[in-house]
Design brief:
CATH architecture of the largest domain: 3-Layer(aba) Sandwich
Shape: globular
CATH topology of the largest domain: Rossmann fold
CATH superfamily of the largest domain: Vaccinia Virus protein VP39
Strand content: 5-15%
CATH class of the largest domain: Alpha Beta
Number of strands: 7
Strand order of the largest sheet: 3-2-1-4-5-7-6
Number of helices: 9
Order of helices and strands: HEHEHHHHHEEHEHEE
């Protein structure tokens, strides 16, 4: 008898490390019945991920129709370069510039101004910095400049060409846009599935250590996102949202007919103090 093995490892996977990425939570999502919605018809309806980041849910779901977006322009440029010019990207990352892994080269590449680079150069720089910076964080200063320090990795994989090619194939029929999450309201319709993974509301005043773009995402922005969630719910879309387990977020989504809040366990791996890393809870809000 020929053994039948899973082909799951053969699928494309996220090509960047991303703070708050959901790869570690996918199994919990499925075991708790949080994902995907049973009513979501994967070969007919559209999947939207407006804060795509590393795209762990997208890569796991493997929808036939999808729209990915993010306000991080360098991230979206990288997605599109992998989609449309993957072989050129692979050759670029194999160049001598990205083979040197030390602080001096890291700072030299970090100092480059993305506005003066081609899309291919932006993607190459983005991937190099993501694989070599501290904990794979993406943080910018008030002027939008990437400012994460060198991560001191022993042997980081800069050019994962096998996965890049798989990602490119998976992205061929996917729309990838640099835009605000609210644009989903112009596209999503009944029975579509939207997953929101926004910048989390801080669990404490000292938790404001990272900014994925130069824009803040605090009380006002979280309330606006809640209103978009409710509007999509009224349209009979299937909606799922992740956020921090704080009184503010719990209160924000409580008492809305048809919406439930579930707690999941997540790892905290980004505190500079190793003793403060560990398990915390997050909330997952769904309308199914």
């Amino acid at each position: 008898m020929v053994a039948i093995t899973s082909t799951k490892t053969e699928h494309a996977k996220p090509f960047v490390k991303w703070v708050g990425g959901k790869r570690q939570l996918i199994l919990q999502f499925r075991e708790l019945g949080l994902y995907p919605p049973k009513e979501f018809v994967i070969n007919q309806a559209t999947y939207f991920e407006p804060f795509v980041g590393g795209g762990a849910v997208f890569f796991d779901l493997q929808p036939l129709k999808a729209e990915l977006s993010d306000l991080n322009g360098e991230l979206i440029t990288t997605y599109n370069v992998i989609k449309n010019n993957v072989e050129e990207l692979i050759q670029s990352l194999k160049g001598i510039r990205y083979k040197v892994i030390d602080k001096e080269n890291f700072l030299s590449i970090r100092s480059l101004n993305p506005r003066q680079l081609s899309d291919l150069e932006i993607a190459s720089r983005f991937i190099y910095l993501n694989r070599t910076c501290f904990n794979g964080m993406y943080r910018v200063n008030s002027k939008g400049g990437f400012n994460v320090p060198f991560g001191r990795y022993t042997n980081p994989l800069i050019c994962d060409e096998t996965n890049f090619r798989k990602v490119s194939v998976m992205l061929k029929n996917v729309e990838i846009k640099n835009q605000d999450y609210k644009e989903v309201l112009n596209r999503a319709k009944k029975d579509d599935f939207i997953y929101f993974d926004p910048p989390y509301y801080p669990i404490s005043k000292t938790a404001l250590f990272t900014s994925y773009t130069s824009n803040s995402f605090l009380e006002k922005e979280q309330k606006e996102l809640r209103d978009v969630f409710v509007e999509l719910h009224k349209r009979k879309c299937w909606v799922m949202l992740s956020n921090s387990d704080t009184p503010f977020i719990n209160n924000l989504y409580s008492g809305i007919l048809g919406i439930r809040i579930t707690k999941v366990n997540a790892g905290r791996a980004i505190n500079s103090d190793a003793s403060k890393r560990g398990k915390i809870t997050e909330v997952v809000v769904t309308n199914y």
